[in-house]
Amino acid sequence: MKDPTAMDTSIQSMLEELRTLGTAVDEEDLPGLAKMHGLCQQVGTAFDEAGGDGGEGVSSLATNMITAFEGLILGEVSDRGHALEAVVEQISELEKLVSSSAAPPDAAAPSDETGSEEATTPPAADVVEADDVAADVVEVDDADPEEPAYDQQPLLIPASEIEIVQGFLEEATEHLDAIEAAVLEVERAPDDTERINGLFRPFHTIKGAAGFLNLRDINGITHEVETLLDQARKGTRTISPGLIDLVFDVVDILKAQVASLSAFVANPDENAVPQPPISSMIGHLRSVVSGVKEPGRFGASGGSGDQKVGENLVDQGAVPQEVVDFAVDTQEGRVDGTKTGEILIDMGVATPKQVSQAIRPQAEAARAAESGSPQKALDQTVRIDTAKLDSLVDMVGELVIAQTQVGANPSIISDPLLSKDIGRATKIVRDVQELSMAMRMVPIGATFSKMARLVRDVSRKAGKNVQLSISGEDTELDKNVIQQIGDPLVHMVRNAVDHGVEPPEGRREAGKPESGKVHLAAFHHGGNIFIDISDDGRGLDPEKLLAKGIEKGIVQPDEELTEQQIYQLVFAPGFSTAATVTDISGRGVGMDVVKRNIEQLRGSVEITSKLGEGSKFSIRLPLTLAIIDGMIVRVANERFIIQTTGVDQALRPKPGQLTTVQKRGEMLNVRGRLIPLIQLGQLFGLSDRVDPFEAMVVIAECDAGHVGIVVDELVGQQQVVIKTLGPQFKRLRGISGAAILGDGRVGLILETSGLAAAHRLRPASTYSEQSAASSESAPRDANATDTEPTLVPV
Amino acid sequence: MQAVQDDVHATVHIEAAESDEGGKYLTFVLDGEEYGVPILKIREIIGIMDITKVPQTADFVRGVVNLRGRVIPVIDLRSKFNLPPADYDDQTCIIVVDIGTTMGIIVDTVQEVHDIKPDRIEPPPQMGAVVDADLITGMGRVNDSVKILLDVDKVLTRDELVLAMEAAAA
Predict the structure, then answer these.
(1) Which tens digit of pLDDT belongs to each residue from A765-787?
(2) How many angstroms separate the CA of residue B34 from the nearest CA in chain A?
(3) Residue A213: which of A155, A128, A276 has the closest Cα?
(4) What is the rounded CA–CA span in Å between residue A351 and residue A338?
(5) CATH of the domain at B65
(6) A683 Cβ under 8 Å from any chain B Cβ
(7) Residue of A686, A729, A735 to mutate, interface with B, max B Cβ within 10 Å
(8) How far apart are CA A699 and CA A622, in angstroms?
(9) Cβ contact, residue pair B53, A638, below 8 Å
(10) Which of A154, A176, A217, B160 could share a disulfide with A272, CB 3.0–4.6 Å?
């Protein structure tokens, strides 16, 4: 829709033709140049005849252009390409002058055919300061966007921070994935403040971390979007599709930032990190935040390159950001699929050449994407659903069992050829098993890198100087283990810095270097993975620990504990409270949780310490969560599996070791400790009470210390693949899963803590209906009648 | 192997879906009575095998078995329906059903697959049945015999398999 008061349509059509030619022409195209030369003359003449205001400006510009074209055609200028560019740029200026002089300045017609209200404002209508608008419109060359300015500055990452940045990048990638999911949720339920909060948080986390690491760009952009989301959650802004689009755009830009940082971190050098331009995005966000603009998709959707035409133009300094935004808005209003670039040309703010230059990176990006960019070539990984991996591991486990069964077939012995073939197949199956296990493994390095940051934070806060050293970062662990070991590790590293390492004065007095050391190491040893956290601090004082244990009632005064047992007191719940003993202060804060987490991973922690010289916490973890080393025990006709790592010893009790408590509970005295006995067969209703002197007792750890499990026989040891028993059996106590044993039968895996709980829940006299009647050693007490119905379906 | 089974399964499903209640039923015998289960619920039929007892479970839960690497629970339908127990023999079968989870049900013997038309199915009897009426979808007439058609989902999920220990100890 053109302003009716504007000049003659003939001038418009001439300008349009001129513009079109300007896009197509090159300096060798003499007929084209000649035609443009002619058009300039016509425009000048026609304008003079129409007698619009400011005619002199138009005339003189037209005259200039005519001269320029003459020069080009006659070959009088040396750099013809440049000269052509200059004159083509002038076309838009000419248009601008023509339109502004033909109509009142505030009613100049942008080529906005939608006829929206914005038609009454200049093209750059969306800027904050009106003065700037005018300036921008007239002086297109001087396209420096002065509004909500954000200066992108060169980013330098010191080598010492590379690892921390790497950790940040991994986190950020996860957060960005979370954000994308959260955005969709918010879009589904825009009124749910909780969901907006869920979206707000990861941005906030990224912002905080980026600020800490001086990643100015990421910090800046997340700050803006955070403000925006804050408005939304306070209810001052509604969640519109435009806002959702905008957030997605921010995520894309952040991803680009993260990607370029990742590339740099993978291959660091002295130079500044290449950063994708974001100034315009931040400007855009600021405008939206301040309410000047409606939130909406940022940049043109027409391009397949990462960088939008508009952004390229802004980066080239050709067009101010707000003009691009306007053009994009216009584009969205149109249904004919006009590209942003075309609109910009239509608006006369960018020359076709500039646009074509701006399109080039887009086209290149598209080409790169088609041919497979170099970055993709490096990243030859496939993301696989872990459930699929798990079932692969399961199947391979079965294959191993089946293979073992074939191998155990007696007829093989008489057939050497068969024996040889089976041997080969067995080897292959083992290889496949190893490979399937390896697929779940990831290096622990990333987790360790995060600790570097932590050590820095904590040591600064505590006023200490602590150096973290790391070894074995390539050690691979099961992905699930890595995910779950993070928190306990954070806790233990923090403790090592906070409580293990002395303050500088203390270290000086002790004759140690002021700067303390914390070492993180990961390594394989004997089918397990060890993660050691050692410090050269003050060490643990066994006497004080023991005194405190007695004070807290965790240890009986006359109890004799080994050194290891004393150290293990730090893991006892409630061991450390506000009233701390200085030398061991805080060592117990949340350490019980740490231990529990590690035990959930079927691992254990061992502590070695030397007073005044430091401590070492050694976490032992299984290679994988899918397989355990099991001790197989027999009770009646059933076989059960006890995880070997939890077993202290197996013994046949001697007379005098056994004590009964109130004629109900049996306790075994093992090296000064009284260990409750669990009659497994009785508890599970498989057999009557077994005389412990005739049986084997397996002493195993549980959350409340140790228990002695009375079994008929130790069958052997075997690595087993853990199977879940499924949802129907999740309420079982004392049984954590099942495994297929060597003969193909199912064996249940015992879980000692649950077993101990089940044992406590059922007094000995009521283990089961069958045994209660025949158990002569356990006379019923007064409560027995209440506890009678034990095997009734509920 | 699995894929093939699923294919068969899918085909059966299409056939079975043609009618409302009618369709193919696998029939089996339990203490002299004949029962039917919609065939699309059935994954496979295996002979009786070693069953590992699981403690703290209801009486009708016999335990778990190894179904080619998967550990699945097995229940005894006689026990579930409070029928007198019987020794397992070479006729005893485990029907592996798929009701969201995979479970095995032990029956005396498996008969055959019948195509029972909807008009041959009568509503469940209101009284005098051995089994609760709500576990039965209907009575299917095949020639001159009557099959009790079971709602296998209800049969297997109505009761918890695991006994509550707290209740027992209270």
Answers:
(1) 444 433 333 333 333 333 333 33
(2) 26
(3) A155
(4) 16
(5) 2.40.50.180
(6) yes
(7) A729
(8) 20
(9) yes
(10) A154
Are residues B130 and B100 located together in one domain of the fold?
no
Nearest partner of A516 among A539, A532, A490, A485, judged by Cα: A539
Q: Which of B46, B49, B52 to mutate to test the interface with A (most CBs of A within 10 A)?
A: B52
Is 70 exceeded by the pLDDT of residue A308? no
Angle, helices A30-50 vs A55-74, to 10°: value is: 160
Question: By CA distance, what is B64's nearest residue in A?
Answer: A746
**Order of strands across the sheet with B61-67?**
B42-47, B93-99, B101-107, B70-76, B61-67
**Cβ pair A733:B165 closer than 8 A:** yes
Distance CA B153, CA B40 (A): 12
Query: In angstroms, what CA-CA distances link B3 with A402, A622, B7, B72, B100?
Result: 20, 34, 6, 19, 17
Q: CB of A388 within 8 Å of any CB in chain B?
A: no
In this structure, are residues A194 and A182 in contact, taking their beta carbons and an 8 Å threshold?
A: no
Residue A54's pLDDT is 56
For residue B123, being part of any structural domain is answered with yes
**pLDDT tens figures, A111-165:** 444 434 433 334 443 433 434 433 333 333 333 444 456 777 777 777 777 777 8
Same-domain status, B63 and B87 = yes
pLDDT cut 70: percent of chain A above it: 73
Q: Which domain holds residue B58?
A: 41-110
Copy the structure tokens of residue A564: 């290891």
Whole-number Å distance between alpha carbons of A627 and A528: 12
* Residue A621 φ then ψ, to 5°: -130, 150
Q: H-type helices in A4-29, by residue range? A: 9-24
Amino acid at site A266: A
Name the residue facing B52 among A724, A745, A792 (closest C-beta).
A745
Q: Nearest C-alpha of chain B: how many angstroms from A431?
A: 19
Computed over every residue of chain A, the mean pLDDT equals 73
Q: How far apart are CA A409 and CA A432, in angstroms?
A: 22
In sequence order, what are the residues at sequence separation of 6 or more whose Cβ sits closer than 8 angstroms to the Cβ of residue A188?
none
CB-based contact B66 A733, cutoff 8 Å: no
* CA pair distance A255, A249, nearest whole angstrom: 10
The answer to whether A56 touches A47, Cβ cutoff 8 Å, is: no
- Residue A625's pLDDT is 66
Which top CATH class is A157-298? Answer: mainly alpha
What phi, psi does A586 have (nearest 5°)?
Answer: 70, -5
Q: Which of B54, B57, B69 comes nearest A398 by C-beta?
A: B69
Q: 């080969």: which residue's tokens? A: A424
Secondary structure of residue B67 in the 3-state scheme: strand
Residue A75's contacts (CB-CB under 8 Å, 6 or more residues apart) are none
Banded pLDDT at A340 (limits 50, 70, 90): low
DSSP string, A63-131: HHHHHHHHHHHHT-SS-HHHHHHHHHHHHHHHHHHHHHHHS-GGG---S-TT--GGGGS-TTTT-S-HH
Query: Which helix (H) or strand (E) covers residue A34, if one does?
Result: helix A30-50
In a domain? residue B135: yes
Tell me how far apart the alpha carbons of residues A156 and A170 are, in angstroms, rounded to a whole number.
Answer: 19
List the single residue in B with minimal CA-CA distance to A724: B71
CB atoms within 10 A of CB B157: 15
What ipTM describes this predicted complex? 0.80
Residues B49, B91, single domain; the answer is yes
Which pLDDT score is estimated for A291? 75
Contacts of A691 (CB under 8 A, 6+ apart): none
- Per-residue confidence band for A520, with pLDDT thresholds at 50, 70 and 90: very high
Q: Where are the domains of chain A?
A: 9-109, 157-298, 300-380, 386-440, 442-622, 627-785
Six-digit token string for A764 = 């000995």
